[in-house]
Design a protein that fits this description.
Rossmann fold; 14 helices; 7-stranded parallel sheet; globular; about 350 residues; 3-stranded mixed sheet; alpha/beta
């Protein structure tokens, strides 16, 4: 008789999803693991090391018939799959289809084929919107996505689908997840004074995995998931330390390169609530930077130092706030910059 808990994980190829998969695989004597993800050769190769121990279902979560194949006889579901920024903001229809319609497809099929499954969803700090003036965030704070944040809108809609479902559920609103992070134009969307609290992929994954054996503690509740007090800094401090590690020197971009408003992030004032229940934290900000530094060889750092001027010129070309400032684009100026009072 199979006494293993039957777990379905969506989005296992992503940064957090892959960490969850690794941790579940380590506990495969307890869990029967099914992963659902889009098919391509890169993802297939990524899953190959686990293929003998897990069930893999490939498909498009936005297609009801695809996700239905993964929803039979499941005890616990961890839903991570999502289109994230910057792609989510560049292609809002795609983000809506995957993040919102995909979540609805998943929920409805679980209600039909696994009505007793417990559902844990990965939401986002972006749902709270701009918190520059009030960075201490509580889970009951107003949901006010920033102007232009299509990703946040899809997360809010998905939360409503889940909380209105017949399933037993919990929602974890993730803070800034740092680890395997790629530089993109979003770098310039966050105002430099922004308060930020990071969490590593490993710690984040641990919260979801620990929830399996503590579902009664989190059932029917929304939580803020963050790294805690030892994972806090300002965005400027975070960039400065990161630049130093990689050999990029100072954060010395032209004035108006960074937005002044309408992003998100802050400190989770009630983040310890989930930690007290699930005991998932192992990392801190210092440990994160130490790991990042270990990834960069002396040769890489030296080469970057020699090319830092060229690299920064290429980076700043991606700054949408700076482009809006120079071109006087009214809509984008309103989005990125605080309007100065007339004197």
């Amino acid at each position: 008789m199979n006494t293993k808990v039957r777990v379905l994980l969506t989005g296992a190829s992503g940064t957090v999803g892959y960490e969850i998969l690794k941790q579940l695989h380590h506990l495969r004597d307890k869990y029967e693991i099914t992963v659902f993800d889009i098919y391509n050769s890169k993802i297939r190769k990524k899953f190959s090391k686990f293929s003998e121990d897990i069930n893999i279902v490939y498909g498009d979560i936005a297609k009801n018939e695809d996700i239905a194949k993964a929803c039979h006889d499941k005890d616990f579901v961890i839903h991570i799959a999502a289109i994230i920024p910057p792609l989510a903001d560049e292609e809002p229809d795609l983000a809506h289809n995957v993040n919102t319609v995909g979540t609805e497809n998943l929920v409805r099929n679980l209600e039909k084929y696994s009505p007793h499954a417990f559902f844990v969803y990965s939401s986002s700090i972006s749902v709270y919107g701009d918190r520059l003036k009030d960075p201490h965030i509580y889970v009951n704070d107003p949901i006010l996505p920033s102007l232009g944040d299509e990703y946040a809108k899809t997360k809010i809609a998905a939360e409503e689908i889940i909380t209105g479902s017949k399933l037993e559920w919990s929602i974890f609103r993730l803070t800034a997840i740092m680890g395997g992070h790629k530089i993109s134009k979003l770098m310039f969307h966050m105002p430099l004074p922004t308060s930020m609290e990071i969490c590593t992929p490993a710690d984040t994954a641990r919260a979801f995995v620990h929830a399996i054996s503590h579902k009664e503690k989190v059932s029917g509740k929304v939580f803020n998931l963050g790294g805690g007090e030892n994972c806090r800094c300002t965005y400027h401090e975070f960039l400065a330390r990161s630049f130093k590690i990689f050999g990029l020197g100072e954060v010395d971009f032209p004035e108006k390169s960074f937005a002044e408003q309408n992003f998100h992030c802050g400190y989770y004032a009630d983040g310890d609530d989930l930690e007290n229940l699930l005991k998932f934290r192992r990392d801190c900000l210092e440990a994160y930077f130490k790991k990042e530094a270990a990834k960069v060889s002396g040769i890489q750092r030296t080469a970057t130092m020699c090319l830092k001027g060229f690299i920064k010129k290429r980076l700043v070309k991606q700054s949408e706030p700076l482009t809006a400032f120079h071109k006087g684009h009214a809509e984008m100026l309103e989005r990125f910059f605080v309007k100065q009072p007339v004197r």
